[in-house]
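Why should sequence recovery work at all? Because a backbone constrains its sequence more than one might expect. Tight turns favour small or flexible residues, buried strands favour hydrophobic ones, and helices have their own preferences. The token representation captures these environments compactly. In the example below, the structure is given first.
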């Protein structure tokens, strides 16, 4: 897997920076955008900025390549997936709790009309 997902010497570095720190930041960004009723395209912009931050942490702390398109795409894709899941999960809970007379949950990421 080394070389495809991460360039550092250990998987632990990738796990710490991208998965734990980047994932937590992406989830909270998605949650914040949903709670403030921002549209999805604003979330995509914020996650793009966050992915640059994740790549910079790899560079600054673990001597990875800063301007590596391949590894930035890996980080950006992971951040985008987690942020989108956080956004949709929060938006679903928001819709069914705020508009309980109109919608019911039809899963963790969807709602339907009553």
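From this structural description, the recovered sequence reads:
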């Amino acid at each position: 897997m080394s070389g495809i997902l991460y360039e550092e010497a250990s998987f632990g570095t990738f796990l710490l920076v991208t998965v734990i720190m980047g994932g937590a930041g992406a989830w909270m960004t998605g949650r914040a955008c949903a709670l403030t009723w921002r549209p999805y395209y604003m979330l995509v912009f914020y996650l793009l900025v966050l992915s640059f931050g994740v790549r910079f942490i790899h560079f600054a702390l673990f001597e990875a390549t800063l301007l590596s398109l391949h590894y930035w795409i890996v980080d950006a894709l992971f951040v985008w997936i987690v942020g989108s899941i956080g956004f949709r999960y929060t938006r679903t809970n928001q819709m069914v709790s705020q508009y309980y007379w109109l919608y019911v949950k039809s899963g963790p990421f969807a709602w339907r009309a009553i």
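A few observations help interpret the result. The radius of gyration is 17 Å.
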